[in-house]
Structure formats: C-alpha cells, structure tokens
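Assess this one:
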Amino acid sequence: MSIYHTLTELGITLPPVAIPAAAYVPFVQTGNLVFLSGHIAKKDGKPWVGQLGKTMGTEEGQAAARAIAIDLMGTLHAAVGDLNRVKRIVKLMSLVNSTGEFTEHHLVTNGASELIGKVFGDKGAHARSAFGVAQIPLGACVEIELIAELT
C-alpha cells in the first residue's frame, strides 16, 4: 500500500519544510541515508512550549511528539521526493524538555514512534533514543531527529 494512501486514511496532510531558524540545513543525504535535523514540537504554527513533569503531562507530550512525526515526514518527503522510496526508518532521537523527576521520556517519544510505525509498517520499525533535557530551543517541549534509508 502506498505511504500516501495510508497518510490520507489517517487524515494527515504533510506540511512543507520549515525554514531553518539557525545555521543548519533541514536534511542531508549521504549515500542511501537521509539525516533530518531536529524538529521541535509546534502547535498552531508556534513552538509548543512546556516542560514535562511541570507544565505538561505524558499524554500532551505524546501529542507533541506525534505532531513532530508529521513534520518530519513532510521534511523527508521534501528530501526524497517520494516517501515510497524509504527502505527503512533507521533511528529516531528524541529530546524531552523535562524536570529531573520526570521519567516517562520513552512514553512521550512513543507518540512519534507509533505514528511512524502506522505509516511505514514494517519499514517504520526503528532504533530509538529518548533523553530528558533541561531545555530545548524556544522552550519547546520535545525535539526529534530522524535517520532514514532509501532504496
């Protein structure tokens, strides 16, 4: 089944690539690997600000991570031209803006991982890291980067 058919079934429209806010590019391809720069959570087009364990709970963090997954897929589409060229989502790395007491970073990151799995099926099963950090640019609650392999 086409990746785009699955996205339509899920009611997802891919956004355009965001213009970088600093000295980096949104993606780099080397060989058959594509590395996507970190994407911060956005809500209504603005940074989704918050700190897990203080101003946000795990469920809201999962929603933020899911929103990032949609942005990442939009960037990946721009990078490769056709998401059906993706052979494998290799890895996600997630940074969760959290208090020192918050311990559900992995559950927050599931918001992205589960959506990637739904969209890409077996090709979406990926390695992953999830870290708690003291702060993320612009006060965003979550930032995620992605590595994909192409056919």
